[in-house]
Design brief:
heterodimer, A: alpha/beta, Rossmann fold, 2 domains, six-stranded mixed beta sheet, four-stranded antiparallel beta sheet, B: mainly alpha, MetI-like fold, 12 helices
């Protein structure tokens, strides 16, 4: 459990974020949202961005998705520089963003329709994914007939159905109640074991980040920087009982101390 | 010290039996709450029947009450029927003139429906164009809002000058008066689509056209239908105003002729027919709204 910053070579990195800054309203009244972020994610690795609200972690994620412009620096994904959005990247939001008039299956097939891929070919994939997350009996239900947890399960399937190599998740479970959230963490863990994507996961839950990730990157409050890079030593697949072990809680405590250190620094600066 | 150690066994003892605490009310896990089968309904009693019918019963009784008082007052005061005919006279005029009333419905209803249809299609097209180009919206939309404030009835004579005394001027004016709510609501609907969903579309490299067809347009349908409810009423007003200015047929024309002959009961019977025609159209739009809501899974 030691900080392992920048030990990944550029050739090994699937996601390479290099000297990225984000400045709003450049000029005398400029606001620096992100300052000089460097981070690398290996192929098949699950990395969490952990930090307080407003630290720019979602902004960073959206930059990796190609949805947000960079003020300086550059980002490569899969060896190619990011220039706008790409179909080898999957996205999940805090809100499931399912289309209310479409059924669960139609919603999962939505990316296939947009990407103009063969409906027949992917239909089975979609049904298999939905069955895998326990929604096999809800294919024809509309989102309003599903619970919050079920909607996010469908959103996971929608992000996976077109087989992107990188999955970006922006606090996907933070709007759910604590019990459903634990369930969703286990669902995601299981899916990860099976599909092995590269993942970048934004959260402000320490426990969630430790349970799910191979590495946790701690970000400071605005302007956001990465202040700790911690490798989580537990082997996969992880059982949820892991969260009750002393080792797990020790790591959580360590991360918590890192975050409060940052808060202290922030308070001094203010 | 070890007497206070917390073990699973000691916690088991602390936890009471849920069966005894909450008398049989089964707890469900979060995921199944909303899809749980509906509980069997209790049988409807006479009281619950009345409660169900109340939203219909109360307004009908209220209207009957007002009509009765009206009838009674006219009868007691011996008020001249040429100024205020009693409801029974109006009903009589409705029955006596049923042929001429029915003959004049198509002219009015047809033009109103035509104007409404053109306004809806053109309104949608203009809104889509404004969604397509932000510059167009910025140039056009504030003017639409400003123009909306003008009392549009004032423009009616101009339509006669432009389009003649035939059906075209009434159709043109009905379209003109009923298009504003469509444009304003539809544009709001197209622009108010969930921004996160638009991000999702962008991340999937969706084209502008794909976003419009698959997301923005369906999202704005509830806005469109609430605008259509206002629009159909305005189209009716447009046609009647048009008929007042120049027409040889239609319910508006009939009102003018009857008023000229001081046949007040026929004027009011015609207004009643207009009311039914308007209600019928409104009902059609309401039905459409209901279908859209069902499609949305509400």
């Amino acid at each position: 459990m030691t900080d392992s910053a920048t030990t990944i070579s550029r050739a090994d990195a699937y996601v390479n974020v290099d000297g990225v800054r984000k400045i709003y309203n450049p000029g005398p009244k400029q606001v620096e949202a992100l300052s000089e972020v460097h981070c690398r994610v290996r192929e098949g690795e699950f990395v969490s961005l952990l930090g307080p609200s407003g630290c720019g972690k979602s902004t960073l994620l959206m930059m990796v998705a190609g949805l947000e412009s960079l003020s300086t620096g550059h980002i490569d994904v899969g060896g190619k520089p990011m220039e706008g959005t790409r179909e080898d990247i999957g996205l999940m939001f805090q809100d499931s963003t399912l289309l209310p008039w479409k059924t669960t299956l139609e919603n999962v097939m939505f990316p296939i329709k947009i990407l103009k891929r063969s409906d027949e070919e992917y239909r089975e994939t979609a049904i298999n994914l939905l069955t895998r997350v326990g929604l096999g009996d809800f294919l024809d239900k509309k989102p309003s007939q599903l619970s919050g947890g079920m909607r996010q399960r469908a959103a996971i399937c929608r992000a996976l159905v077109y087989d992107p190599s990188l999955l970006l998740m922006d606090e996907p479970f933070s709007a759910l109640d604590a019990i459903t959230r634990d369930e969703m963490n286990q669902v995601l863990m299981g899916m990860w074991q099976e599909f092995r994507k590269t993942g970048l996961f934004v959260t402000h839950s320490i426990r969630e980040s430790v349970f799910l990730s191979d590495r946790v990157l701690v970000m400071s409050a605005r302007p956001g920087r990465i202040v700790a890079d911690l490798t989580i030593p537990f082997p996969r697949a992880r059982e949820f009982s892991l969260v009750d072990t002393p080792e797990f809680n020790e790591i959580c405590a360590y991360l918590r101390s890192k975050i409060s250190e940052q808060e202290a620094v922030g308070a001094q600066a203010a | 010290m070890n007497t206070h150690a917390i073990t699973v066994e000691s916690l088991d003892k602390l936890a009471s039996d849920p069966e005894n605490v909450s008398a049989g009310s089964g707890h469900q896990t979060g995921d199944k709450k909303q899809v749980a089968s509906t509980p069997s309904r209790p049988r409807p009693t006479v009281n619950s029947r009345i409660r169900q019918l109340r939203p219909i019963l109360l307004p009908v009784l209220f209207a009957l009450g007002v009509l009765s008082i009206w009838e009674f007052l006219v009868w007691v005061t011996n008020y001249p029927a040429a100024i205020l005919p009693p409801p029974t006279d109006i009903l009589g005029a409705l029955i006596d003139n049923r042929i001429v009333l029915l003959q004049n419905i198509p002219a009015t209803a047809g033009v109103a429906l035509g104007g409404f249809a053109i306004a809806t299609v053109a309104g949608i097209a203009i809104s889509v164009a404004m969604t397509w180009s932000l510059h167009l919206k910025e140039a056009f939309f504030p003017n639409i809002i400003a123009f909306q404030i003008v009392p549009k009835v004032a423009w009616a004579p101009m339509f006669v000058l432009w389009l003649g005394i035939g059906m075209e001027s009434r159709l043109g004016f009905a379209t003109f008066i009923s298009i504003f709510p469509i444009i304003i609501s539809m544009t709001a609907g197209l622009y108010n689509t969930d921004p996160t969903l638009l991000r999702l579309c962008r991340s999937l490299t969706a084209s502008k056209w794909q976003v419009l067809v698959n997301v923005r347009f369906p999202y704005s349908l509830p806005y469109l239908f609430s605008a259509m409810k206002i629009s159909i009423t305005l189209a009716m007003i447009g046609v009647i105003v048009g008929e007042f200015i120049t027409s040889q047929q239609g319910l508006g024309y009939l009102i003018l002729v009857a008023a000229g002959r001081a046949e007040t009961d026929l004027v009011m019977a015609t207004v009643l027919v207009l009311c039914f025609v308007g209600l019928f159209f409104y009902g059609l739009v309401e039905l459409g709204t209901w279908l859209v809501k069902r499609w949305f899974g509400e």
